[in-house]
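S1.2 Input.
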Amino acid sequence: MKPTVYVINGPNLNLLGSREPERYGRATLADVEALCRTAGERHGFEIVFHQSNHEGELVSWIQEAGRAGATGIVLNAAAYTHTSVAILDAIAAIAVPVIEVHLTNIHAREPFRRTSYVSQVAKGVICGLGPQGYGLAIAGLAGLAGQETRT
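S1.3 Output.
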């Protein structure tokens, strides 16, 4: 059985490719999923990929990853990054490393976006690199887990 990485996406990421393409790019969520699956294969991971506009569902998937003993979580909590103590608490309650990912550089945006509850409990943060940030997060989790890269 392959080690598993959960990739969890928050609200409005289902609109990638059509929502503010000048800010978020033209890649769709399906493109991001394909990128994650390719990166997962390269590092010997099974990828569990989710997206929801509902905070409680994100919390449930974080808890599920903990119960499953996942190798890690790549989390783009989107707007919930800046508002959700529930997501912070869910991450703090599990023994799974989380890499926080954002398509844009949240530190160069509106002041309210510069606060991240997720960062307080994440192992690392990648922002501003578009969809490639997801692949880098998976590579980072592979490094943390001591996984060899497959060519």
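S1.4 Remarks. The beta strands are 4-9, 46-51, 72-76, 98-102, 124-127.
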